[in-house]
Write a structure and sequence with these properties.
The protein is mostly helical. The protein contains 15 helices and 2 strands. Helix 1 packs antiparallel against helix 2. It comes from Faecalibacterium langellae.
Length: about 375
């Protein structure tokens, strides 16, 4: 039977389980960081430990995207990225800004304050800010999780430029130099449009490109390489605990400086191989995570809308004395609303296909990994 065939590394859904687990983890982490549950050592169980491997997970996402990379002309690459990634970004920005305005006015009944806050949100999306920043004396909020799409867009273009300009022997050095240039720029300037983030993720995209080219995901690793990947994952935890900070691409912060950038990439590759092995089992958990993964782009966009548009801090304040209960309740509400909207989007698409067969399109989310 077709459903019992083992998943091959060339399958279009090979990363679905990884993306599904990643989406659930990302929503949980964004929820948990709002609640403080400190340990005896002063570190927060919710605002620190869930984020130790956050950027290793994000690196795994970028590696998976790079797995489908194909060199093309620079102009065609730019055109493709704008067409594929800018559209969901603009839709998400529009609905976030509109809902933010109405929800905040309904909550506070103060129009000048609502307009001021909505300007900050809108400006953050227009400038593509990965974190809150001040430009010309005006504060603008970040575009939230949408920084990932902008970093993917710019990183994809940077990698294509490198492959078109540099001879093959010099490409690895150019890729490493691009990441170091992005890291160095972040020390003196926080540019808009996630340019730093796009430069830093180029090694991850290139690693995905090499993984497909050299079949790194469908053959056993050498003992030395496996030990190196495990050591990199261990060093991430050691570095975070020692410095009491965690890596954060969106904030351009790395606990061990540029070394952390490459450690996260190694750990990300380890995560991918682990999930590919786990996905060989066709149990209910795997099928559920794959179902979530197939809707990852929609989940990502809807999560951005609810995270920014809804004043969750009002909800958090009601559970100040019971942070654990509040955290799980908010997570359930967030995931429930996200899943409901995704189902509505799926039903809408099915209706459009039924009414307008000629306009049928293969859903972008299924090709998300392969094309990016």
């Amino acid at each position: 039977m077709e459903g019992t065939r083992p998943r091959t590394v060339s399958s279009i859904g090979m990363f679905d389980m990884l993306k599904g687990a990643g989406m659930l983890t990302i929503v949980f982490a964004h929820t948990a960081e709002l609640y403080s549950i400190p340990t005896s050592g002063g570190l927060s169980l919710t605002a620190f430990f869930p984020f130790i491997y956050r950027e290793a997970l994000m690196a795994a996402f970028f590696i998976a995207s790079g797995y489908g990379f194909r060199k093309r002309s620079i102009g065609k690459c730019i055109q493709q990225q704008l067409k594929t990634l800018l559209k969901p970004y603009l839709y998400t920005a529009f609905f976030t800004c509109v809902l933010h305005f109405f929800i905040h006015y309904k909550s506070f009944q103060y129009l000048p304050g609502t307009i001021g806050e909505s300007i900050k949100v809108t400006g953050g999306f227009v400038l593509g800010l990965p974190h809150t920043a001040i430009y010309s004396g005006q504060e603008f909020f970040s575009c939230g999780p949408m920084w990932y799409l902008l970093a993917l867009l710019t990183g994809w273009i940077f990698l294509d430029v490198i492959l078109n300009i540099f001879p093959e022997p010099y490409v690895p050095w150019a890729v490493a130099g691009c990441a170091l240039l992005g890291w160095g720029t972040s020390l003196v300037w926080k540019p808009p449009f996630c340019l730093v983030q796009g430069a830093v993720v180029v090694p991850y995209l290139y690693l995905g490109f090499l993984a497909k080219k050299h079949h790194l995901l469908d053959q056993p690793l050498s003992p030395r390489l496996r030990a190196g990947l495990i050591a990199a994952a261990a060093l991430i935890a050691v570095g975070s605990i020692a410095t009491r900070t965690t890596d954060c691409i969106s904030l351009a912060e790395w606990s061990l400086g540029p070394v952390s950038i490459f450690l996260d990439g190694a750990a990300g590759l380890l995560f991918i191989r682990l999930f590919l092995r786990l996905s060989r089992s066709r149990g209910p958990v795997v099928r559920f995570l794959e179902a979530v993964g197939r809707r990852s782009l929609n989940i990502f966009c809807v999560h951005t809308i609810e995270l920014i548009a809804i004043p969750w801090y009002l909800f958090v304040a009601k559970f100040e004395g019971r942070p654990l209960l509040g955290m799980w309740l908010q997570y359930a509400v967030s995931m429930g609303s996200i899943w409901l909207v995704c189902l509505l989007l799926q039903a809408r698409r099915a209706l459009v296909i039924k009414l307008f067969p000629a306009r049928r399109r293969t859903p972008a989310v299924q090709h998300y990994t392969a094309r990016h």
